[in-house]
Design goal:
Keywords: Cell membrane, Lipoprotein, Membrane, Palmitate, Signal. By secondary structure, this protein is an alpha/beta fold. Helix content is about 35%, strand content about 10%.
Length: about 550
């Protein structure tokens, strides 16, 4: 299941192009590196590695974790068991999420490289830049030689091998894969579910709204008559914040919107949502709600903690997020708002480009002098029963609540959450990083999490039937020149789009400013962005 801090994802800072890569300490040998940060000759270290080792060895890893987790990752039961099963001790340097991007880059720039970076949070730009500088090493030969678990996954699911292979033919990183359904039925197909206060609807004798006009009337009734009185917030969101943004409502006006603003039409054309006519009409409608006092005044500035605090106090008539348990608790006071019919009769649920996939979860650095040992360690996290625990948490922990129980058949059964917010429990107990949880594991290795099965049922019954888009945009690995150009253009276009979106909902003006806005997008390079995306999409689909 998704974690939003949505999980989303980490920013990086640039560092010097010429790195002097010094060796990091481990239990086997020191590094010999040249001034470009590249090993003069890779050292595979121990030969014929079999786990568990007869003699304990140590590797040095850099990582990140939730502030809710132990400062030392070895305090987690998963890693204690893992060390026992491998006889490999990991010397962790660990930072919390908020500190990690800057700390990671400072450590890499210092030249004192760890053996590997676990839960690395690397963007495509990072991977390609560090590969070019020789800071990280290609791993496709290690996968073929030392990693039977991962190799089996890539052979049986070739789309993932395609997605992790750079344009130069090398693989530089190890992925995180979480399958929960496929296509429109995948759990990531809709991010920002709107949750409406069913308790207020019932107490006020209101029917569930089915159109944008009916929703407006319901929100007005919440404002004027809701039991929360002066504390009532008819509708709240976090603008431009993934699952907490109200983009789903814009589907009633046409194509709708999603968090990255790209969609693929039925004729395989890549388009931008935020310059479509229906987008203009939808934003205009949201501004109307704003002028009527139906939108939270803090919706344009609040952080996650503020958003959650108000939700836990049941102040919202309608709000948006991935899972209501993280905002208002796992109860029936809030239920999914069904897709709404717009002014011209349109009913559409905008589909995201979300995949249960992250390319940059782990990399091996050029200072690593024990590649075979490291590869064997990493491959073990791709064992089905290990991946399941790394993703969600473990069993048999006597010090805190468990995610699983281990059955007599050796499979993992999800335990009831008993009111605990799933994201908080998982952050305390799982280890994340590279892993693979495939659809075929459900029923054979593990059960589905109750909250995931419940969410999939909601999508299947409520939203997927109204989801018009057959296609979405996969996480294609661009070549470095294209990625550099795309990043440069998107750093201008996307902030402008999202700034104007917030400004128009809050202050209005979209009708008079629309033409100039569209011209500005073209001037800032949107047409070039779409050309890059289209060419990559066509190439990906052609199998080249």
């Amino acid at each position: 299941m998704k974690k939003k801090k949505k999980i989303s994802y980490l920013a990086t800072t640039a560092f010097a192009a010429s790195l002097l890569v010094a060796g990091c300490s481990n239990s086997t040998s020191s590094s010999a590196s040249n001034a470009k940060g590249q090993n003069s000759s890779p050292s595979y270290g121990l030969k014929n590695v079999q786990l568990p080792l007869k003699k304990k060895e140590t590797l040095k890893f850099l990582t990140q974790s939730s502030p809710l987790a132990p400062k030392d990752p070895n305090g987690k039961l998963i890693w204690q068991r893992f060390e026992k099963d491998t006889n490999i001790h990991i010397d962790w340097t660990n930072y919390t999420w908020d500190q990690f991007p800057d700390k990671r880059n400072l450590e890499l720039a210092s030249g004192d490289l760890p053996d590997a970076i676990f839960n690395a949070g690397l963007s495509d730009n990072d991977i390609l830049r560090y590969a070019k500088q020789g800071v990280i090493v290609p791993v496709e030969n290690l996968i073929d030689k030392d990693m039977p678990n991962l190799k089996k996954i890539l052979d049986s699911h070739p789309q993932y091998k395609k997605l992790i292979t750079a344009s130069d033919g090398h693989i530089y990183s190890f992925p995180w894969i979480e399958e929960l359904g496929t296509g429109k039925e995948a759990i990531q197909a809709l991010d920002d579910i709107p949750w409406i206060n069913k308790k207020w609807l019932d107490e006020l004798g209101l029917k569930m709204p089915t159109t944008t006009d009916e929703l407006e009337k319901v929100l007005l009734a919440f404002k004027e008559k809701a039991p929360a009185g002066n504390n009532t917030i008819p509708m709240s969101f976090m603008i431009n914040h993934g699952g907490e943004d109200p983009a789903m409502l814009l589907g009633a006006f046409g194509m709708g919107d999603n968090d990255d603003h790209y969609m693929v039409t039925e004729n395989q054309k890549v388009v931008y949502t935020a310059n479509q006519p229906g987008y203009e009409k939808g934003i205009e409608w949201l501004h109307k709600l704003q002028t009527e006092g139906l939108i939270d005044k803090e919706a344009f500035t609040q952080d996650w903690n503020t958003y959650v605090a108000k939700g836990k106090n049941y102040r919202y008539g309608l709000y948006f997020t991935w899972d209501r348990a993280n905002i208002s608790g796992n109860n029936e006071d809030y239920v999914p708002l069904p897709p709404l019919k717009g002014p011209d009769g349109t009913v559409n649920v905008p589909r995201t480009n979300g995949y249960g996939f992250d390319r940059g979860r782990m990399v091996i650095t050029s200072s690593n002098q024990n590649l075979d040992l490291t590869a064997k360690w990493i491959d073990k996290v791709y064992e089905p029963i290990q991946s399941v625990q790394n993703n969600w948490g473990t069993y048999g922990d006597k010090t805190q609540q468990n995610i699983f129980e281990l059955t007599s058949a050796g499979t993992l059964k999800h335990l009831p959450l008993n009111g605990t917010a799933p994201v908080e429990l998982r952050q305390k107990t799982n280890v994340d990083g590279p892993l693979a949880v495939l659809n075929e594991y459900y029923g054979t290795v593990t059960t589905k999490p109750d909250d995931a099965a419940w969410r999939l049922d909601i999508l299947h019954k409520t939203y997927v039937p109204a989801m018009k888009a057959t296609n979405n945009y996969p996480p294609i690995f661009l070549d470095k020149d294209s990625q550099d150009q795309l990043t440069q253009l998107e750093t201008v276009v996307k902030p402008y789009v999202e700034r104007m979106k917030a400004e128009w909902i809050l202050k209005g003006g979209i009708e008079s400013q629309w033409d100039d806005y569209v011209k500005t997008l073209d001037k800032d390079g949107l047409s070039k962005i779409l050309t890059i995306k289209q060419q990559a999409y066509d190439k990906y689909n052609s199998g080249k």
